[in-house]
Design goal:
Length: 393
Amino acid sequence: MPQTTLLLDLDDTLLDTNMEAFIPAYFSALSGALADAVAPEAMLPALMGGTKRMMQNEDPALTLREVFDAYFFPKLGSDRATLGVRIDRFYDEIFPTLQHVTRPRPAAVEFVDWAFAAGHRVAVATNPYFPLKAIQHRLRWAGLPPEKYPFALVSSYETFHFTKETGAYFSEFLGQLGWPEGPVVMVGNDLNMDLLPAQRAGLPVFWMRDGRDESQPGIPQGSFADLRRWLEETDPQSLQPKVETPDAILAALRATPAALGTLTAALPADTWTRRPAPAEWNLTEVLCHLRDVEAEISLPRLQKMLAEENPFLAGVDSDAWAQERGYAQQDGRAALAAFTETRKGTLGLLNGGPAPWSRAARHTFFGPTCVRELFGIAAGHDKAHIRQVYNTI
């Protein structure tokens, strides 16, 4: 069986979480921990408002923590420098006491043990509203301590830019994994939060239904035992992600600068100039290439296709620019920032008003084409360079 990348939801998939009890207990505990510095009546509106802004974020330049902090701390009349140490202490010392409102799911642990033993890539795709240390506590409560289980990735608000409400979350998740080759499945219990958004992003899904009466045509569903049997019996080719629809293309395009931002955030200086092989681009050259292709090819082509009827689009040999423009001597971080800003302009045109996906053009290499085809190719181009970056760092 080929390696499958399994994205596993946490709450009510790997861990029974009574949200009606957990959320009030969490708010009460955090308010109590900061009561001498923050009025308790101010805490709930600040938390809810910050969470809402994370849910709404579509800016690939901002992590969810940055979005949350920009709302949360001003509402409390404070800043992270003042309260950050105490909040960290809360997650270290008080948050673990909330375990009593959750229950482990032995079947989930059994499944995860099997998945690792079978050689699959296992990742925890929880909605990234919390800091990593809070999510790690919840994994311990589930009987899946991160000290024991080598999860490929655990999403958290420090490193993610989107929540599950947007399909870009799922594309960002795969981007941070280097867009792995092979089958991918999103496994979750929530139809509207886990499954339908993942499908819109082009991912196969499995509904962890566990005996509930609900059903959804076309979505495989059942228990962890059913999931294991389904994985063993399903043709892996049918579980390949497909970035083909406008929703999936938009999700992938939005996620690319976000994933690159996280992958490169903490790299030492020598990583930016190191070549994986003598004839291959280094990280700085890849990011300069993405910047210039976006600014000089993708965005101008889209603008031309929106402004003109069936325009001619000339092919461009952008690979030659690396040498001609001296990419290796440029600033890779600045190139990523410029790429991100230009990509936001492209997304604004693709997502503004009626989607222009059927606008036609004639291309030197592709012949008759349209926005949907060209930006599907652009998403594939992104994916190839994310893999290149992932393998370089």
